[in-house]
Amino acid sequence: MFGGKLEGGPSNVTDELWVFNIPQRTWSLRKPAPPPPYAQEGHSAHMVELANGEPVMVVFFGYSPIYSYISKVQEYNLRSNSWQVVSTGGAAVQGGYGHSGVYDRPSGYVFLHGGYKTLGTGKYGLVDHLYRYHVHTRTWLILRESGQARYLHSAVLVSGTMLVFGGNTHNDTSLSNGAKCFSADFLAYDIACDSWTVLPRAGLHRDANRFGHSAVVKNGSMYVFGGFSGLLLNDVLAYTPPSCLAFADPDACADAGPGVRCHWVRGHCVPWEPRLAADVVPSPFCPIRPESTDEQCFRFSDCASCTANTWLCQWCEDRKCISASSNCTVLTLELARQHVGALALAPPPSMLSEHQLSLWKHGARRRGHSILDTSRCMQKEEQECSYLANCWSCSLSLNCQWDQQQQECHALPGQLCGEDWQHVGEACLRINASRESYDNAQHYCKNLGGNIASLVTEKQVDFVLEELHKYHLQGKTLSPWVGLRKINVSYWGWEDSSPFANTSLRWLPGEPSDSGFCAYLERAHAAGLKANPCTAPADGLICEKPALSAQSLSSRSCRTPCAQRSSCANCTSQGTECMWCSSTQRCVDSSAYVISFPYGQCLEWQTQDCTAQNCSGLRTCGDCLGQVECGWCGDPSDTGKGVCMEGSYRGPLKSPPRAGPRDRDKERPRGDRSMVLDQALCPADRGFHWAFIHCPGELIGYHCPAL
C-alpha cells in the first residue's frame, strides 16, 4: 500500500510504503532505497510482471502537494526494494487524481479511465480520458472516450469488458449545470471494439449513487463496497453479467453484449480476452465505424499522441494532426516569400481557410509528408513539458523550463523566439489571419509552444495595434482573439492569470455583454474589446510565448508550494494561486481545491482579504456568525455587546490542555484541531446568551417596533 493522505497534519500526503501479511494479519513499513520520488494521493497501483518476469508494483498518476498532478509512471521492484520513474513510449498522456484502473495479466495491459486533471492555465476539471498502458513495452495508446467524465469511480474487468460504476460527475463551480456529485451510472467499455455502452441502472430498493467506493471481481461477479453519498456507506452491491456459456449458437454468442464480450471457439461460446486483440483496435469482427474527421484529430497537438490512438490520424509536416483519410497539404516556402500582402504576415499557411488558400498563386500547394507510425515521431519533450503542472515538477526535467508569466512549462527553445515570431519585450508574439473559434485558436498556439496572447503591457498592445493597422492598409481587417476570458460570474482574466485592468485595452461601450465568455479585439484603432461565445469564429488570433533564455529562466526559483504555507496571509499573497481553508487551517493549490476536500471537509475558503484568524478578533455578532467555527456570547445587558469565540450549536469550545511529560503517548496528532465543550465560557446562569445560528433579534418573526 503506497502513498495516500494521512488524517493529521497540514500537508498530510505521504510517500510511505506498507506491506500487509495476509496469513499473519500484520502490517510492516518498508523503507526503499532509493525512496519514492513523490508523496502523492489519488493514484492507482497494480502488481504486474515485466517482460523479464520481474515482479513490480506499477503506480500511475496521482496528485502531489509539491509537484501537482503527476503524469509519470513509477515502478517499485519487490526484489530490490527500490523505486524508479520509467521512460515510456507511445502517446503523451496526462495524469490526474481519482481515475480508475484495471489490469489484464494475460495481455499485460492496464486500462486507466477518467480522473480530475489540469486542463491548462487556470483550468481544471473532470475528464473521460481512456488510456491503455502495456507493462512489457511501457507504451501508451489513447482509446475512445466515454463521453461521461467522472472521478473517484470504480472499474473492474469481466469477460473482455471494463465495467465502470458510480463516481463523482459534478464538474460545476459557481454555476450548476445539473451534474450529480453521487452517480449511479453504469458504463461498459468493450475492449475488442473500442466502444462504450451505458448499462441499465440497478433496480434496487435503495439508492446506489456513490463515489469513493471500491470494487472487486470474484467468480465473474462485480462487488462494490462502501463509498460516500452524503454519508459514508458500508453496504455491498453485487452485479452478475450474462454468462457467455449460456449462448448456444454463434450468432447469439456474437450478440451477447452489452456488458459482456463473447466469441465462438470450437463449438462453445467463451469470454473474449484482451490478449486476443494483438494490438489491433478495433477487432475485425466489430461493426465498421466511419472514418475520423480532421476535427476529431486536431485536438492531438503532438506527433506521438496523433499517431498512438484509435482515431486513425496522421501527423503532417506542418505540425498538425488530421484524419488519415485526408491529404497533408502545405504551401511552398518559396511562394510565401514571393507573395506580398496580408497573407504574408499570417504564418503558418496550414492554418488558412480554403478561401484564403485560393488567394495564393496556383501551384503553391503540394502534398506534404506525413507520419502514421509513432516510432517515426521525434522526441515528445514539448508535449510532456506542457503536462507538468507547476514550477516544481517542471524544474525536475532537464528539457523543460517554467514560464512564470504564463504559469506554464515549455520545452527549452533553440533560440530566443524562432522563425515567424516577433520579439516584443519579454515575450514573442505571432499574428495569424485564420478564422477560428477560441478553442481552435488555443490549440493552434499550443502547437507552436505558446498560448493565446495575454496583452498586459503597453509595448505588446502598441505592437499588435501597429501590425493590425498594416493588415488594414493591405485590405485585410482583422478582429483577432486575445487571451482574455471570463473566469467566473463577474471576473475577467488573462490566460496567464493576470487580472484585466481595462487600461491599454478597453471594453467597447456596452461590453462585456452576456453573449460570450471570450474576448476579441473588435476595433483595433480604438483598442476596443468585445465579448463573444468561445465556440464562435473570430477573424484572426494572436499567439504568445516566452522570449527569455533558458539560462535566465532556470535561474528563477520556484515559489513556496501552497501546501507549505501555514497562514492565510502568506497563502493568499500570490493572487489566486493558492486558497486558504480556514476551517481546516490548510493552504491548497487552487487547481487542486476540489480534490483536496472531496467529501466537503472545507467549510469556507479565501483567496484574498483574510479575515481574522481567531474568533476573538471579530467585534460584531454578524461578522462572528459569518465564520462557521465561531459563536457569539451576548452580554447580559442586551445592548448588542458580546464576545466572539470558537464554538458549536451546543456552546463555546476550548482547546484541551497540552499533554504533559507523562502523557506523551496521548498527545494529539499534528494538525488535530479537536476541541471540547466548555459552557463556563458563556455562563447562562449569569445572564449571558449563546448564539450560533442567528444573532439576538434576528429570529424569525421578531422585529423592532417602529418608534
Automatic annotation (TrEMBL):
GN (gene name): Atrnl1_1
Species this protein is from: Merluccius polli (Benguela hake)
Keyword list, A-Z: EGF-like domain, Glycoprotein, Kelch repeat, Membrane, Repeat
Matching PANTHER family: DISTRACTED, ISOFORM B, LEUCINE-ZIPPER-LIKE TRANSCRIPTIONAL REGULATOR 1
GO cellular component terms, A-Z: Golgi apparatus; membrane
SUPFAM superfamilies (UniProt xref): C-type lectin-like, Kelch motif
Protein name listed in UniProt: Attractin-like protein 1
Taxonomy, superkingdom: Eukaryota
Location in or out of the cell: Membrane
Domain C-type lectin: 424-544
